[in-house]
Amino acid sequence: MADDVKEILFSREDLSQKCRELGDQISRDYEGKELVLVGILKGSVVFMTDLMKEITIPCNIEFMEVSSYGTGATSSGVVKINKDLDMDISGKHILIVEDIIDTGITLSYLVDYLKNRKAESIEIVCLLDKKERRLKDIPVAYIGYEVPDEFIIGYGIDYAEKYRNLPFIGSLKDEIYKK
Ligand code: PRP
Ligand code: MN
Ligand code: MG
């Protein structure tokens, strides 16, 4: 698995430090508010668990599962909701927890989808931002890092369902996905 990595972009230590910074900032910003973290499966699973441990105010957690990439290397452009929220979010402050924003199609679809549920606010925390590829403009309140236009894997992020369990974030060798 590690042989397929072109370059390590962010180490375990980088990522735990980043979660600490984001967690501090979120804890300050949402003090006294009813916060619900909404992790977007599957990609956000590792980021969600690391980030929530760094949030020092009370919060609820929820998950949604959406997918647009399937097993391909590029987004299909069609977002499929496989699992919706379990909780009524009216009056709550929603913070969507996402691993990476690429075209922006997934997050803009999600925010639109959740808009009529009477949440008090809806914001996004996204670990990685691949700015160059954006098709849909969507404001992201908290961003961990900008990443280059490479195929990103690890720390929850997959290529064809593989590499999610790598403990760091890296780029995938071109020959693996450009076949
Ligand atoms: C990936 C990633 C983001 C989305 C970003 O999810 O985890 O959710 O694509 O791409 P976009 O900005 O171009 O929409 P994917 O659909 O692969 O599902 P997964 O999280 O289960 O891997
Ligand atoms: Mn995803
Ligand atoms: Mg994926």
TrEMBL record:
EC class name: transferase
Coiled coil: none
Transmembrane stretches, start-end: none
Superkingdom as given in the UniProt entry: Bacteria
Family annotation (InterPro entries): HGPRT, Hxn_phspho_trans, PRTase-like, PRTase_dom
Any one GO MF annotation of this record: magnesium ion binding
EC annotation from Swiss-Prot or TrEMBL: 2.4.2.8
GO BP: any one term: purine ribonucleoside salvage
GO cellular component: cytosol
UniProt main location, coarse: cytoplasm
Pathway named in the protein's UniProt entry: Purine metabolism; GMP biosynthesis via salvage pathway; GMP from guanine: step 1/1; Purine metabolism; IMP biosynthesis via salvage pathway; IMP from hypoxanthine: step 1/1
Cofactor: Mg(2+)
Pfam families assigned to the protein according to its UniProt record, in alphabetical order: Pribosyltran (PF00156)
Subcellular location: Cytoplasm
Keyword tags: Cytoplasm, Glycosyltransferase, Magnesium, Metal-binding, Nucleotide-binding, Purine salvage, Transferase
UniProt keyword Transcription regulation present: no
Protein family per UniProt: Belongs to the purine/pyrimidine phosphoribosyltransferase family.
Function of the protein: Purine salvage pathway enzyme that catalyzes the transfer of the ribosyl-5-phosphate group from 5-phospho-alpha-D-ribose 1-diphosphate (PRPP) to the N9 position of the 6-oxopurines hypoxanthine and guanine to form the corresponding ribonucleotides IMP (inosine 5'-monophosphate) and GMP (guanosine 5'-monophosphate), with the release of PPi.
Name this polypeptide is given: Hypoxanthine phosphoribosyltransferase
Species assigned in the record: Proteiniclasticum sediminis
